[in-house]
Amino acid sequence: MPSDLLSLAEASRLLGISVERVRQLVVAGDIPGVRFGNAWAVPLQAVSARGHSASRQGRPLSVARAWEAIASGDVDLSNRSRYRNRADIQRFAIGRADLDYVIEQSESVQSGVKAAIAYGEPLSDDVRTSDVYVSRVLMDLLPRSVALAPDPLGDVALRVVPQPVWEVVAQQSFDEGHGFAPRAAVALDLMESGDPRHWAAAERLVGADG
Predict the structure, then answer these.
(1) Are 70 and 86 in contact (CB under 8 A)?
(2) CA 96 to CA 82: how far, in whole Å?
(3) What is the pLDDT of residues 55-113, one digit of tens each?
(4) β-pairing, 39-43 with 34-36?
(5) pTM of the entire structure?
(6) CA distance 168 to 176
């Protein structure tokens, strides 16, 4: 097993919860998982990020309600699972030119570290991962235009937003950052990192909203 992956038993020890609870979180999508035959493994970074956050409280918000909270900037970063329905996360391995093509589309906005830097956060731009919100319509068209290789541990996370809600996301992005996701959405995405510097930036981004 790669060194950046943990067994469910190892993750359970780090999180202080049962192996079955870790399995439930993986199945629910709260922690990304990779299957090796009959066994699951989870990324160390995801476990670190989960350990930094409080346990899930309350039912996840609907996609529309999640974006209403993001629009207001009123998000609880310690309970980020509450907003997990904001997008359907799909991970890919994708070449730089193809990623640039995705970013250049009118129905996509960047998030993650790139967006945080655009909002003035003093983060390093040497991260390998990329976060991009895309509309469902764009996502359905991309396989005809770029080479997307599904990969649970891929460096590119395309966060797919249902079309009826995309107009709200696009308007917020235009109002705030001209091509970058709203600050609260960026903050929620940064909380999925295992890097404490990203957590601190997320707190500042939410503070700037408030």
Answers:
(1) yes
(2) 32
(3) 556 688 999 999 999 989 889 988 888 898 999 999 899 999 999 999 999 999 999 99
(4) antiparallel
(5) 0.79
(6) 12
